[in-house]
Design a protein that fits this description.
- The complex is a heterodimer of chains A (255) and B (263).
- Chain A has five helices and eleven strands.
- Chain A is α+β, with helices and mostly antiparallel strands and 255 residues long.
- In chain A, the strands form two sheets. Chain A has a seven-stranded mixed beta barrel. Chain A has a two-stranded antiparallel sheet with strand order 5-6.
- In chain A, α3 packs parallel to α5.
- Chain A is extended.
- With 263 residues, chain B is an alpha+beta fold.
- The chains are: A alpha+beta (255), B alpha+beta (263).
- Chains A and B meet through β1, β2, β3, β4 and β5 of A and β1, β2, β3, β4 and β5 of B.
Chain lengths: 255, 263
């Protein structure tokens, strides 16, 4: 049984939908501990004062924001927490957007929303209405003392909540300078490239893509554990495309 | 222009486009630093060997993996690097998929891919990919190695450029099984659904990311300013927890009437 990490309610207007929040994703990267190379003993991170070079106890540590060189404004955890705004247990949804219009770059983390113990009919109603309208609810949520914009939409029989990146947190790709070309890609090249794209078209099935790197790391660990030698691989240099049309033709021929 | 995080090439059939990778994120967060309370001297983290109680330079740090039997397997960075695939300088496109078929739950970090160098051949090949992907609303699925970890990525056209999004693997997405969901008897009536959809439509608007601002960062900046001037900062009071409404239909009707009255 998954464990909820937050309990509260979605509110829109006078409607309250009690919810429990669950993590929807987990990193499965192989994690290593820092160890001393010669004997594998544990490495500790210790706080050292840059002034006297001595270790500092956790109780003697404060948080500071630099407002000028070497000039700090000290803030307590409570003061930082005050930035969260109202510490309410609600996700206030105030409007609904077409889910398909949201650019993927805005999605940050995903959580599943479970129905709270009281008010399951309200959860069922919100789920049904979002599904029928094809829209996603946009609201604000304070989690871990931080207010975020969130999008709520139906997913696989439950509601999913996505925390969203703000517009000013994203680089507009159009602002990166792109060199000019003397000759734009020709219709013929575009047509051939399109054929190549069509030839490689596939239905997206996430289960077809395994994390082969994770597997490879586990194999290296296994070999090392057995005392085997580990050889570094050689780098292969990619070929350059000097003749675009010839490369396209060759790709199509071999596709 | 910001520095690129990686350079290599984007492989599409036999066409290789030299590209440079840039972060798609701007760090707008206020960063705090740990200070020594008595004199506000910044604190640094140093690595110490727990056995010998001596500081350990970075070169002497290795990666330890604890096996299920409690044994510690030690790998140097060079040994760990052997796990990375041979081709670390190419993004190989494996397939083209419909962008809207990829659930947002898979999206991880945003990046931007720009042509590397300004040779005519590179720029033309880059523009060709932009043109083709932009026309079809297809996105390319590929793999590449970033910071010695292999990533599954989605490359697509946006603003005449190519963007790259790293993806979460399918087994990094948890199943929805076990998430409490309503039972059959909780199913709403058609009338209730229609009323709720009417409310959603009354509150409908286009997606406009510029509309949302990071109120948290703004408040935090104000708090720093207040503190700097020696003013006090008070934590906001906790609000009462919301309680479920007894009559769902009445709440829906009342809200819809309120929204319409405001409009």
């Amino acid at each position: 049984m998954p464990k909820s990490i937050w309990n509260g309610a979605i509110t829109f207007g006078l409607v309250t939908v009690p919810i429990k929040v669950y993590s929807a994703t987990e990193s499965r990267t192989v994690h290593f501990r820092e160890v001393h190379a010669k004997d594998g003993s544990r490495i500790e991170h210790r706080r050292i004062c840059t002034n006297d070079g001595k270790e500092v106890d956790y109780e003697d540590v404060v948080k500071g924001y630099e407002v000028g060189k070497g000039k700090w404004v000290e803030l307590t955890d409570d003061e930082i927490a005050a930035a969260a705004g109202s510490q309410s247990k609600r996700v206030d949804v105030d409007h609904f957007v077409p889910a398909g219009e949201i650019d993927p770059d805005h999605y940050e983390r995903t959580y599943y929303l479970g129905a709270g113990d009281k008010g399951r009919p309200a959860y069922a109603l919100l789920h049904a209405a979002l599904e029928k309208s094809g829209r996603a609810g946009v609201g604000r949520w304070v989690f871990h003392n931080r207010e975020r914009t969130v999008v709520i939409r139906p997913l696989d029989g439950v509601l999913a909540l996505h925390t969203m990146r703000f517009a000013d947190e994203l680089v507009d790709p159009g602002e990166l300078e792109l060199g000019r070309v003397r000759k734009k890609p020709t219709e013929r090249e575009i047509k051939m490239a399109s054929q190549l794209v069509e030839g490689l078209h596939a239905e997206f099935d996430p289960s077809e893509y395994e994390d082969t790197y994770r597997q490879a790391v586990l194999e290296v660990i296994e070999r090392k554990a057995q005392g085997k030698n580990i050889e570094p691989p050689e780098e292969a240099e990619p070929e350059r495309a000097d003749n675009l049309l010839a490369a396209l033709e060759a790709s199509l021929a071999s596709a | 222009m910001a520095r690129s995080l990686w350079t290599g090439s984007l492989g599409f059939g036999l066409v290789n486009v030299p590209v440079a990778l840039f972060s798609g994120r701007v760090d707008t967060d206020l960063h705090f630093r740990q200070l020594h309370a008595k004199d506000h001297a910044p604190i640094e983290m140093h690595r110490f060997c727990a056995e010998e109680d001596v500081e350990v330079p970075y070169e002497e740090i290795a990666n330890g993996f604890e096996t299920d039997d409690g044994d510690m397997v030690i790998l140097t960075d060079a040994e760990l690097a052997t796990a990375a695939p041979r081709k670390t300088r190419t993004i190989d496109i494996e397939a083209f998929v419909d962008l809207d078929a990829v659930d947002p739950i898979h999206f991880d970090h945003p990046y931007i891919l720009m042509p590397s160098g300004d040779s005519e051949g590179t720029l033309r090949a880059y523009r060709l990919l932009v043109a083709v992907m932009g026309r079809t609303d297809r996105a390319a699925l590929g793999r590449f190695v970033l910071r010695s970890k292999e990533q599954l990525v989605l490359v697509r056209a946006r603003s005449e450029r190519l963007t790259l999004t790293t993806m979460r693997f399918h087994d990094e997405v948890r199943p929805t099984k076990g998430i409490p969901s309503p039972a059959k008897r909780d199913r709403p009536s058609k009338k209730e659904v229609d009323q709720a959809v009417a409310l959603i439509e009354a509150l409908a608007c286009p997606w406009d990311p510029e509309r949302y601002e990071d109120e948290y960062e703004k408040r935090l900046k104000r708090i720093v300013q207040r503190k700097r001037k020696g003013q006090t900062v008070e934590a906001p009071k906790r609000e009462d927890d919301p309680s479920p409404v007894p009559d769902l239909m009445a709440a829906l009707e009342k809200t819809l009437a309120d929204v319409k009255a405001r409009a």
